[in-house]
Amino acid sequence: MNQTIHHFPEGFLWGASTSAFQVEGGYNEGGKGPATTDGSVGPGIADTKVAADHYHHWKEDVDLMAELGLKVYRMGFAWSRIMPDTSCTPNPEGLAFYDQLIDYLLEKGIEPFVTLYHFECPQALVDAFGGWKDRRMIDAYVKYAEVCFTHFKGRVKRWVTVNEQLIATAAARNTGDTETDPRRRQKNTYQMSYHVSLAEHKAFALLHQIDPEAQIGPVCAMQVIYPASSRSADVLAAMNAEEMMQNYMLDISVRGEYSPYAASYLRRENFYPETAPGDDIILKSSGPDFIGVNYYFSDCAKERTEPIRFDRFPPWSGGDFQLCDNPYVTKTEWMDRGIDPLGLQIGMRKMYDRYRLPMIVTENGMAYSEVIGEDGCVHDPYRIDYITRHLEQIQVLIDEGYPIFGYCPWSFVDVVSSHQGFAKRYGLVYVNRTDTDVKTCARVKKDSFYWYQQVIANNGLPE
Asked: Is-catalytic flag, 303?
């Protein structure tokens, strides 16, 4: 028998994650409306039309979750499945799909932990008024949230407002923003971000009113940025990078305001968002109960010595910093920024010290190109090693007194990647399909599934 090194706290939420658009499929079934994420990524790359076909395999998937021993399933709702058009009228078939899924999760003793918005913006709202660029999106989101909070009251006890605002507001495929001028596109990103934060705060207040026992919070793409050297200019560049790639969003989501540096930068570049009377009251009168943390890798920054460029993907292009290579991390085919488990501890310490809120790891995973072996199995020791090394860092944090209440690796099953289809796999469960051949999407448990099953059963890592 393996002995455990440490037991995690009693009641620790061992889970796994997916998102609606990457796992469900059924893009034109059950009354679902189109979403910004439904379009083709490129020739020969799988899109979201079938994805992992969870829409038709949901019961089998929940049975696998129960076999794994999950305490919580961090899942997503597809907004356009619940509200397919601009009328914001709930779609009974969409609600019925999530009813059956959530009821079966609860029957199996698994807590549904629901993300309201994970990149997939309803195309109808983009076509009508530009989506998050327009304040009307705030009201549409609040109506959507109200329907969800009311309909699932008592069944869903933890909610996520928005997954990774950094990517949700910066990637054109997610937002539907067709602006071609780089500076205007960047300005749009900050305006959309501001509207998202207003919507979040309205949702915080609304849930606490509708279901006082439930909790809600944002999920951030945690940025751990090291200075390229001990030069003070590089240290400042790393601080600036963390500020504009993470903290400016969390500051307004949690505290209801920008930091002095972030506000100064936005004004200097003429990016400061347009506001309206009463916004301060909305932003200051409510707050989240926790922060969800997505972490895959750290990054590195150095002093910017060239003019700021805005013609690259926004979060990584403009600012008082320049991202650069880190020679001290291990890189792989898909983890090209490097693998850095200690960065998880560093980032979560910084986050707690700044915001003083409980935290849960909502995504953390190892991508790999995988196929079923001749023995009919998928052997993934690299994923077991990756998760082990990150759980060790979480254990250190918990032992030191940091309030971390759960861990959800990405992902439960293989999901369609936003840009790399099914060539890039993260799952504990293999989905038997390729980019060009959907096959039957049969589920095959990987070695990491059985390993994680033991971790959960032991409530701790084996020796």
From this structure: no
